């Protein structure tokens, strides 16, 4: 059983997120998705989410590629997460390219996947405000 993990905010869930989750699941058999808590988003990423953590969790849990959703409350938890959940592969979109290579020292394969162009939560908000 190959276990994959990925992290994100996943606010206003869109096809770019789904494309990432689909490709992440294709790299193994079990996908853990770590969703940023409301506090983590605000304090660490200055992101104000439209949907609360619970709402974002419910949406991502409904995606067929996802097996488990847990909260992201710190930047540092990745190292403990990969051991606690016996992760083989860590996946992120390539806007994070190189940022998490330290996880290779934990024996984890680190994969950066191309982002889906044109779509983002920020773009959706911008378009809706026009
Ligand atoms: N993504 C993508 N294509 C898009 C938009 C997002 O592939 N058009 C990917 C991102 O690269 C990321 C995932 O979808 O891998 C989630 O994106 P966000 O919700 O924007 O996550 P982010 O705020 O980058 O949080 O500790 C890591 C952070 O929690 C990542």
From TrEMBL:
The keyword Glycosyltransferase does not apply. Residues 5-126 form the Cytidyltransferase-like domain. Keywords: Nucleotidyltransferase, Transferase. GO terms for cellular component: cytoplasm. Its EC number is 2.7.7.39. It holds the Pfam family CTP_transf_like. InterPro entries: Archaeal_FAD_synthase (IPR050385), Cyt_trans-like (IPR004821), G3P_cytidylTrfase (IPR006409), Rossmann-like_a/b/a_fold (IPR014729). GO terms for molecular function: glycerol-3-phosphate cytidylyltransferase activity; metal ion binding. One of its GO terms (biological process) is teichoic acid biosynthetic process. NCBIfam families: cyt_tran_rel, g3p_cytidyltrns. This is Glycerol-3-phosphate cytidylyltransferase.
